[in-house]
Amino acid sequence: MERGDKVALHLNTNHPFSIKGGTLSADELSRHAIDIAKEHKVSTNYNTILLNRLNNNFESITDIYKFFHEKHNQNTPLCPASEWLLDNYYIIEEQHKILLNQLDKSFFKQLLYLKNSIFKDLPRIFAVCYELVSHSDGRIDRDNLINFIESYQKVTPLTMQELWSLEPMLKLSLLEYISSICLKIYNIQNIWDKVFEFNNLTTDEIIDNVSEHLKNMESIDYHFLERVLIYTKKNFTTYRKNT
Known about the structure:
It is a single chain. By secondary structure, the chain is mainly alpha-helical. The protein is 70% helix and 2% strand. The chain has eleven helices and two strands. It is elongated, with a radius of gyration of 22 Å.
């Protein structure tokens, strides 16, 4: 199976969580913690779904890392965000191994699980951590963590077991978030590759290609339009210099 096909498979089997609201300020994070605490309904029915997601996410990140590594070796132009993955993959690999050693069935039996929300059937503390990670763009520090947890507990207290599990749950959430970001970077790179192939096309073929792409877009693909404009500007400048 080609590297791109393996990544596409992950896109179909391990959908990222759809979190709305984007990056929030400190005050907005506190209010959001209170809102989700009011929403959450819990049960004691445990499962190990997160272990499957951990391994699927790591495999997805690994395939995307290899995808970019191969392109780097081929001197293919890479989107800037891919550099972070190429430089930091070894840290992700290390944390994946640590989590596998930390987590087992007995660990998950100690937690409470959600009966509602997009995190239904997952540990409540994971949902809390992932909400913080996603709404802070993965930038976790002591202050925003403490404020978020304290705000949540103004509505409903977390158990001692949940609080003790904060570290691995934050790591799981970060890996989940990184996986979703990697999939976005992968899609952006495919757009770059598509525009890079314009070098082998005539002007009429490029126009037909862009027209067909625009016709089939369900929404405006700003990354594609940006790359087309950059390509056009670059080649127009080269044309003017040569004439």
